[in-house]
Amino acid sequence: MDMLEILENIVKNAVSKPYTSKYPFSPYQHFPGTRADVTFDGTKCILCGLCERSCPAECITIDKEKTTIEYLNTRCIRCGYCVRVCPTNAISQNEVYTKPSREKLTVYTLVTNENAPIIKKRKAEAAKKAGEAKKD
Amino acid sequence: MRTVVQFGPQHPVWIEPIRLKLTLDGEVVKDAELEAGYVHRGLEKKFEWDYNKAAYLSERVCGICTQHHSTCYCLAVEGTMGLELPGRAAIIRTIMLELERLHSHLLAIGLTLEAIGFENLFMQCFKDRELVLDVFERTTGNRVLHGINIVGGVTRNIGPEMAKEISGFCDAMEKRCHELERMVANSHTIRQRMQGVGVMSQKLAEDLCVVGPVARGSNVPYDVRAVAPYLLYKELKVTPVVEKDGDCWARTMVRVRELFQSIDIIRQCLPLVDGVPEDLFTKPKSMPEGENFARVEAPRGELFYYVRGKKSKELDRVKIRTSTYANGIGIVPLIKGAHMADVGFITITFDPCIGCFDR
Amino acid sequence: MMESRTVTQAELQGIVNGLKAKGARLITIVGADAGESIEVLYFFNTGVNSTEVYRVVVPKKGGNEEVESITPLMPAAYIAENELSEMFGLKVKGVPGRFFLHPSLKAPLRRS
Question: Taking the CA of residue A88 as centre, how many other CA atoms within 13 Å lie in the half-sphere pointing to its CB?
Answer without folding.
Answer: 15
